[in-house]
Amino acid sequence: MGLTARALAWADAASDAAGRVAAVLVVVLVALVFALVLARYGAGIGSVAAQEAVLWLHSALFLLGLCFALRHDAHVRVDVFSQRWSPRRRAWVEFGASLCLLLPFCVFIVAVSWDYVAASWSLREGSRDPGGLPGWYLLKALIPVSALLLALQGLAGTVRAWARATAPTADA
């Protein structure tokens, strides 16, 4: 296995691992929301920490699921035009879109969030609400991490799109 194939496999494995974590978070999120509804309406008990945990799980689920969705081509795509295109043309469009839109977007997210996350870490930021969860800086750290994972998977997709676009056969 060549260096490129190993790098692509590593990017795919990282995205799949993030997806497995997101899948577990879905189950935990559903169970927690169910328990919160039972506690609130069944027993009249509420918990700020549990409500914040729902927010944490929901945020982490989406942030970690981004690269997984891209890896498995489950992201939103406008197929109105591309359904009529040849596989080669679709590959060129995917290559260009990744290079000109996705990767700069990921760099932008990392650049914009870096100081925000660093400030949160320096303060060891916790909840503003009494009884809330500590360690909000950990959740905020997922913002640049998810952008980096998305960029990694985006690079893998860009390499694959290039290979399909420049393949010698017309059915790339």
From TrEMBL:
UniProt superkingdom: Bacteria
Transmembrane spans: 21-41, 53-70, 91-114, 134-152
MF annotations from Gene Ontology: transmembrane transporter activity
InterPro entries, per database record: DctQ, TRAP_DctQ
Principal location class: membrane
Subunit structure: The complex comprises the extracytoplasmic solute receptor protein and the two transmembrane proteins.
Name the record gives this protein: TRAP transporter small permease protein
Record organism: Arenimonas caeni
